[in-house]
Design goal:
Elements: E1 3-10, E2 20-24, E3 27-31, E4 35-39, E5 42-47, E6 53-59, E7 62-67, E8 71-76, E9 81-86, E10 94-98, E11 101-105, E12 108-113, E13 118-123, E14 132-134, E15 137-142, E16 146-151, E17 157-162, E18 167-173, E19 176-181, E20 184-189, E21 197-203, E22 211-213, E23 219-224, E24 229-234, E25 239-244, E26 249-254, E27 258-262, E28 267-273
Antiparallel strand pairs: 1-28, 2-3, 3-4, 4-5, 6-7, 7-8, 8-9, 10-11, 11-12, 12-13, 14-15, 15-16, 16-17, 18-19, 19-20, 20-21, 22-23, 23-24, 24-25, 26-27, 27-28
InterPro entries: Quinoprotein_ADH-like_sf, WD40/YVTN_repeat-like_dom_sf
Length: 275
């Protein structure tokens, strides 16, 4: 089994949970009480909305933060507020930044262009983390025990993937879909959208709130906010590494390091070292 070696730790002044993390160009954006950008364990920028931040996503240097105040915030990698759009609650909770706009979800999902003009809107179940995107499709993690697959351009529902338990988060990488659901996690082959296939399914992870692929897509990490653990699997399904925390882990992001956000606000960065 590989070793997770901690390389830095960020201790914010407030103890709000770090519930989501996004990476770009050496910087990690943190969704917590405020919107923060950290580099090498040092705080670079902090922007506060009218309520707590709920999610964060990135596309080529533009971070998009969700917030419980009904707004979403576009922030540059330097930490400058670029745009603020009111989309309303609960639709401002879960967000995904795209090349030509952004998606927000709560009990509905909507696509907006980069100027905040709504293109479509669709009713879904409760969504806590932003959809994953791959080749024209959006994969929506639904607490209604499914992953809903939408056409990105129109919002049309293509199919529902039954999961059997509430889905917290999803991620895509190299024709694979990772699913984090209550009590289990899974990796699926989505190279042929007409024949989606299971690669592997693992049980025993009670509350995998976040999932993140390594940059090379060879590994996938899941937090377990119920059991206080982080688990890393290979794309073949082997358990590569695991770590226990004194405070429950929620947010996970993977860039130059594997970064974990804890319930007490602490953020820890790890390198994956081969044994």
């Amino acid at each position: 089994m590989a070793e997770l070696k901690r390389v830095w730790r960020y201790r914010p002044k407030t103890k709000s949970s770090t519930v989501a993390i996004a990476y770009w160009n050496g910087k990690y954006a943190l969704a917590r009480d405020c919107m923060e950008i950290v580099e090498g364990g040092e705080l670079k920028a902090r922007i506060c909305g009218d309520n707590e931040s709920s999610d964060v996503s990135v596309y080529k240097g533009t971070f998009l933060f969700g917030n419980y105040d009904g707004n979403v915030y576009m922030v540059s990698e330097e930490g400058k507020l670029l745009q603020k759009f009111h989309v309303g609650l609960p639709k401002s909770i879960a967000v995904t930044m795209l090349a030509d706009g952004f998606v927000t979800c709560g009990e509905e999902c909507a696509l907006y262009d980069v100027n905040g003009n709504r293109i479509w809107n669709i009713k879904v179940g409760y969504v806590a983390n932003g959809p994953a995107y791959w080749q024209g499709y959006l994969f929506v993690p639904d607490h209604g025990k499914k992953v809903s697959i939408l056409l990105k351009d129109t919002g049309m529902l293509m199919m529902d993937l039954p999961v059997g338990s509430p889905v917290y988060d999803v991620a895509t990488c190299d024709k694979m879909l990772a699913i984090a659901a209550r009590g289990k996690v899974a990796l699926l082959d989505i190279s042929d959208m007409g024949r989606i296939k299971d690669i592997w399914i693992k049980s025993g992870i009670e509350k995998p709130w976040n999932v993140a692929f390594s940059p090379d897509c060879n590994y996938v990490a899941f937090s377990d906010a119920k059991r206080g653990k982080l688990r890393v699997y290979s794309r073949r399904g082997n358990l590569i590494a695991k770590e226990s925390f004194r405070s429950p882990p929620w947010g996970v992001g993977w860039g130059e390091e594997l970064v974990v956000g804890l319930e007490d606000g602490t953020v820890e960065a790890y390198e994956l070292k081969a044994s």
